[in-house]
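Ligand: coproporphyrinogen III. Inputs:
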Amino acid sequence: MSENKKLLRALAGETLPVPPVWMMRQAGRYLPEYRATRAKAGDFLTLCYTPDLAAEVTLQPIRRYDFDAAILFADILLIPDALGADLWFVTGEGPRLSTITTQADFDALKPANDIHDHLAPVYETLRILTKELPEETALIGFAGAPWTVATYMIAGRGTPDQAPAHALMRENTELFDALMDRLTKATISYLSMQIEAGAETVKLFDSWAGSLKGEAFEKYAVEPARRIISELKLKHPDVPVIAFPREAGDKYIGFAKRTGADCVALDNSVAAEWAAEHVQVDGCVQGNLASSHMVTGGQALIDETRAIVKAFSKGPHIFNLGHGITPDADPDNVQLMIDTIRT
Ligand code: CP3
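Predicted complex:
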């Protein structure tokens, strides 16, 4: 591990006087330079699959803000795309996919290890980034967690309550489990390739973990994460994994221990003092400023940023938002957040 990468030091369990900082969706539509490159690419998927352009947008927030980490520019839905589902993005609405609701739909998907030709541009983006990033900037790879990706594949789009996925889980558990297994295997293989291409840590985004209750949380959030992390650790024992079971609430407690994650990312529905006491006791945490502060700014942003830094100051902490920055954010507020953390 490079001693001058603060993000990797925090992930290794070190308590730093000033926490490292990066932001979910830090390369995104709130930045004029992103919008320009995005326009040049034409559409979002072309941007994801064109290594020079994907590397360029990954670097834009690093040039502008000096974040401690860069996150690969890609999307969690590239896995379904690589497995053979149709995927497209409707501007202003979000992703659309061909649905997986029958055995025949599932049988048409490719095997889990047959995704790498399709995803080769992603690995190339990472290789470019290992050469272009400043020495002190860590490179983060990522994938969606199986449950979250499955919710999009089953519904064919984003859903407020993930009802179609819950329905399939209930009504055709065998098919649902087969899809989860395919996604788990594909994710292990994909993240492993990202690490080989230069990712120094990887993050598992389970954006819809909060809608899994009781035993379903165990079976479909904890267990796939545990399996993915343990398989990755066999091959890459020194590469830390960040898990983000968004809106897990009380179930954040013990999540790191039970899955083997080196760091748990927190959304902003949990109080920092509570999370310091109940989650950070087990190791590094990441989070958790509400992204709305990037829109509203001002003294409230400063006060809340300071409060989060203080609450997590006794253990390993990576400063981040509780969810992705939104397109209506003011780029100056990002600088204000960083200045508040570092001074
Ligand atoms: O964080 C980063 O900067 C890295 C790149 C990244 C993107 N998406 C780029 C993106 C990452 C890590 C993601 C993760 C992702 N994608 C998640 C999990 C995290 C979360 O936000 O909960 C999910 C659920 C997706 C699926 C997805 N991709 C949706 C629902 C949408 C449309 C909604 C939206 O915000 O526009 C996308 C599109 C997307 N992914 C954009 C970006 C920058 C905007 C597309 C554009 O430029 O038009």
